[in-house]
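Readers outside the structure-tokenisation community will struggle with the description of the input data as it stands. For illustration, here is how one protein appears when written out as sequence plus structure tokens:
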Amino acid sequence: MSTAQEASKAVAKEDWSAETGRARVWFESLRDRICAEFEAIEREAGSDASFTYTPWKREHDGEPVPDGGGGVQGLMKGKVFEKVGVNVSTVGGTFSADFAKTMNGADPENPAFTATGISLVAHMANPHVPAVHMNTRFLTTRKAWFGGGGDLNPPIPYAEDTADFHASYKAACDKHDPAYYDRFKAWADDYFYIPHRKVHRGVGGIFYDHLECADDAGFEANFAFTRDVGEAFLNVYPALVRRRMGMAWTPDDKLKQLTWRGRYAEFNLVYDRGTLFGLKTGGNIDAILMSLPPEANWE
């Protein structure tokens, strides 16, 4: 090992608790602004629907985990948003030995972890309004990294909506690295794919993971990027909802939506990493499965 490598190893950061706290505060503030915007849309539609917030604690085998953390599930069912969940959580503990083998920087001998993040899924009443998923998170094991992104899931796609959604994320990516957008768009296209159906879940977006923080400078850069990813979502998605929420729809449009929702549910239950992570780490079942649509069709 070279002198430089030895020095780097000697000063490797191990305590990320302050950074986890900062990320948590940001995720919670983003949650508050998103929920306020969604409630404003409901008011514009003549609805008084609001989010209900349910706190939860991390459990293992039905028992609370000491110092395991928890989160808050935010849920609204309204006139425009048929079902929308905006969840934040901050949890910690140890992975099971088998699950540790699958996680970046963890192993059976050192399975400790922390995770904080925001996760959002919106299923819309009007089939012309695109459903959406957004998630950003900060995790630590023996390593520390950010992940996240957002993807648009319209039952009835509109090229204008797809272009605007991607443009917002591209602008966020380009502020930090000109290679990010193409890389993370391709990652989303690959990740949000349903192999047994041979179709994509939607029209894509961006997806990134294991954006590692080797030191304080790395954290600041990746945290800034992750914040811009959150802002990109808030900048574009409410505008798409307002663009489509007043459109008339037919029973055939609704059938398309319900059939598409069936595909969405299949992906989330069979392939989604976030669902698996939540189930494997003692998360709240209702919060984990809030991504499932309120109604779907498999005919």
Q: What stands out?
A: Residues 191 and 207 are 8 Å apart (CA to CA).
